[in-house]
Amino acid sequence: MTKNNIKSVSAKRPKSKTSGSELQLFASNGIFEGEVNLQWDAMKEASRYIIQVSKNGTGWQQIDIVSDPQYSISGLRSGRTYRFRISPLYSGGQGPWSSAIEKKVE
Q: How is the chain split among helix, strand and coil, in percent rounded to 5?
């Protein structure tokens, strides 16, 4: 599995600074086989975001820590379902995890 920051996502959502406590995470298949694009609304005062993936639904693996509210993951197995979640990082520490979302890779 390889990791790449992306500058844009094909199904781009408008950028907004969410002040609520719940991150809304969205996933779409990328333009390449085995690629998934993640996107979320920026959280007010969050400087970065931790991204995690689960292949089996129980164990979580950290993919990366990024500053942009979007991310592209390549090298995933087509036909397999993965779960993703994110957590904001603030100057005072880590915020709560988003609800996990599932995405079947095409």
A: 0, 50, 50
